[in-house]
Amino acid sequence: MLTGSAAVGALLTGIGALGGPTESAHARTIAGLSPSRCRVTDLTHALHHDFPIYRPYILDPNIFQFASIEEDGFNALKLEIDEHTGTHFDAPWHFNDSPDALHTHEVDPADLVCPLVVVRIAHRAARDYDAEVTVGDLRRWERRHGRIPRRALVAMDSGWSARVLRSEEEMLNVDSEGVAHFPGFSIEAVAWLLTERDIAGISVDTPSFDHGPASASDPEVHVLLLGQNKYGVEMAAHMEEAPDAGAMVIVGVANIRGGSGGPTRLLALS
After folding, report:
1. CATH 3.40.50.620 is right for the domain spanning 9-48+82-269
2. So where are the chain's domains?
3. pLDDT (tens digit, 9 = 90+) per residue, 83-111?
4. For 47, which DSSP code?
């Protein structure tokens, strides 16, 4: 099996010539959303001191109150958190050290307000903890909703955010050999999105775009996606509450100069 750059090259050159339906009728602009009738769905986990993290790669959050109205005249918290804690953004530079790799503050703001595409695999993930979004899943979405809109954020709903809320152990789902098991995107699906569609990025409700076993040993989805200067959002919440199609999403990443990512408020407008 090809891995790393060899697999990326083979997939990017071999997946062409797969046609698709016309542009989605659900592709919308922010200008078309009426504030008085707009539904806002928060797809963000609330950060806190004990929020589950992907050990051993992420640092423990340290969030505490350092000022109070009683003693200081105002309330304030101090935040010491890894960029990749909670619902967060992966900038291309996170897995891409080329000279043109985008840091967090360099990602085009226009790509942070985009159509939301939700691909649901929760039924498979309930049986197969290592389930992946496939090209077949993407094609089924298009048969129902039309072509994936340009500059969309393509999000996986695996039902995993409920596990995140329960415990770190359930989120990581580590087996007796120390291998994590959770859903992600297949390398073929991401290669298809990059070659056959024009996306802004992808999102998952798990700790990594790469499904559990690959996330630590061979994170080829990270390498491929971020290597093409696309971004991703990990640990999204409540994706089951967002519509399959027709929504816009605001990717409210902290604008960190030189960053590899950052905490993100992810909001769907429909």
Report:
1. no
2. 9-48+82-269
3. 999 999 999 999 999 999 999 999 999 99
4. P
